[in-house]
Amino acid sequence: MENKNILIAVTGGIAAYKACELVRLLVKNDLTVKVMMTQNAVKLVSPLTFKVLSKNQVCTDDFLPETDGSATHIALAKWAGAVVVAPATANTIGKFVNGIADNFVTTTLMAVPETTPLFFAPAMNDNMWNNVFVRENMKKLAVRKSCHVIGPESGMLADGSSGIGRMSEPGAIMECLGKVIAN
Ligand SMILES: Cc1cc2nc3c(=O)[nH]c(=O)nc-3n(C[C@H](O)[C@H](O)[C@H](O)COP(=O)(O)O)c2cc1C
To answer: What's the pTM value of the predicted model, to 2 decimals?
Structure first.
């Protein structure tokens, strides 16, 4: 992969804090990283944290009055050599596979060219992961070319229970990404 620009999409899962470490690892490995966040992700981790770690502006909205009027979602989708959605909520996965583009992140994901590698690192409660409609949505994801699903892992979940749904560790996500971008 010639284009080593990595776009990270952070959605509103508690594992958003792990995305900070992912960004740090990618930057440490000399990749150029930009981060976009959903409004729910912003409630969990500050965009400023990702701005500092990625050394780039963080995009959350291109309808703000202070933007220059260009369609940032299209430019960002073209800029990316690979896109990683981490954590990927049930909500954002569901929207993506059903062609819904109702916020900055889902709109940008929809504009990513089909040949660009797109990674999803799902993270959610085990009942959500086992929900019949989430299962159907995960099958639909495989329909897209160059789509890779990383995890989730089993272990302790945010509510203290044990089950499947933990986001894969940043190192494991980095490894999967590395294998694809090395080719
Ligand atoms: C503290 C907290 C933690 C959450 N963690 C998750 C999660 O790990 N996975 C998930 O799918 N939803 C989680 N949710 C619910 C999502 O935030 C919710 O479905 C939201 O609509 C997702 O929006 P987004 O996909 O646009 O970020 C959590 C909500 C809260 C309040």
So the answer is: 0.96
